[in-house]
Write a structure and sequence with these properties.
Bound molecules: NADPH dihydro-nicotinamide-adenine-dinucleotide phosphate
Structural class: alpha/beta
Oligomer: single chain
Strand content: 15-25%
Helix content: 40-55%
CATH class of the largest domain: Alpha Beta
Largest sheet: 6 strands, parallel
Number of strands: 11
CATH topology of the largest domain: Rossmann fold
């Protein structure tokens, strides 16, 4: 039997969503109904499930949602046209472009077309820059959810050595920026890192965001570390399909102080933070609808 704590992401997400619900009620009482527009291009089954979950959670929190389902052969100009209309709509407070897009579409240009004030994913360059300068209002949902789980588990993060495995724009890099903002000492590892396991073994906090099933075994982990496993990998085992993380949970449990399971760890927090960002965007837009922004609002 291990003494490691399994961090309950579902319970943490339920707490975060209860806060969102209360904030939505207050905004509605003041005349603003937060509204999230979700754009899905094509028919990727995984994206379809993600979008349905997001719309469902939005409804539960009292957030209005608008689904824009576009065919797989949608042209870039059509997609940009829709984004511009949503940017201009006073009813819409958050715009989420479900990724990945079909290969013929330019993802970076589409994300950049979203008004930074409605960019509830926190992927617009203006919000990325704001995060790196420690002044971001809308920060990426998955790393923000991970920070909440870390604070719930550890309390103060100052001075801890955090290792982030993975350097993607949507998880690894913003995660590192948020940890730095919380006064952690941060190491970022990637596919070209030398001695990755040895470096990771020095960490008080490990964030695994690689996308490789169970790559991080117990020999990567320091006794007593707190581990947040972002990875979601589908594997076929014993004749059935299941989801596993980037960390080998069974071996890690015997060594670490606390770890998130997959599923039931980071995933629910990502959606909860999307709702939080939608409320934040709605509040900001209600307060100053005409505030200037530097991009194509
Ligand atoms: P990407 O594929 O964009 O990035 C993976 C990163 O892992 C890259 O930086 C890559 O390095 C690094 N990497 C690959 N192999 C190794 C290795 N052997 N050692 C060290 N680093 C390595 O993935 P994402 O960041 O988008 O997602 C990561 C995982 O998180 C996926 O499983 C994804 O499904 C999951 N995810 C889960 C979410 C949730 O809500 N729970 C939300 C978003 C993602 P390099 O840059 O050198 O190529």
């Amino acid at each position: 039997m291990s003494a490691a704590l399994l961090i309950d992401g579902k319970a943490a997400a339920a707490r975060a969503l209860a806060e969102v619900k209360a904030e939505v009620a207050a905004l509605k009482a003041a005349g603003t109904t937060p509204c999230l527009a979700v754009i899905l291009v094509g028919e990727d089954p995984a994206s379809d499930v993600y979008v349905r979950n997001k719309v469902l959670r939005a409804g539960e929190a009292g957030i209005r949602s608008l689904e824009h389902r576009l065919p797989a052969n949608t042209a870039q100009a059509e997609l940009l046209g829709l984004i511009q209309r949503l940017n201009a709509s006073a009813e819409v407070h958050g715009i989420l472009l479900q990724l990945p897009l079909p290969a013929h579409l330019e993802e970076a240009a589409a994300l950049q077309a979203i008004s930074p004030r409605k960019d509830v994913d926190g992927f617009h360059a203006e919000n990325v820059g704001g995060l790196s300068q420690g002044r971001a209002v809308l920060t990426p949902c998955t790393p923000s959810g991970c920070m909440q789980l870390l604070r719930d588990t550890l309390g103060e993060l100052r001075g801890k050595h955090a290792v982030v495995v993975g350097r993607s724009n949507i998880v690894g890099k913003p995660m590192a920026a948020l940890l730095l903002q919380a006064d952690c000492s941060v190491t970022v590892l990637h596919s070209r890192s030398h001695n990755a396991a040895e470096l990771c073994r020095q960490a008080d906090i490990v964030i695994a965001a690689v996308g490789r099933p169970r790559m991080i075994g117990a020999h990567w982990l320091k006794p007593g570390a707190v581990v947040i496993d972002v990875g979601i990998n589908r594997v076929e085992e014993h004749g059935r399909s299941r989801l596993v993380g980037d960390v080998d949970l069974d071996s890690a449990l015997a060594k670490v102080a606390a770890i998130t399971p997959v599923p039931g760890g980071v995933g629910p927090m990502t959606i909860a933070y999307l709702m939080k960002n939608t409320v934040t965007a709605a509040r900001q837009l209600a307060r100053s609808p005409e505030a200037p922004c530097l991009s194509t609002c």
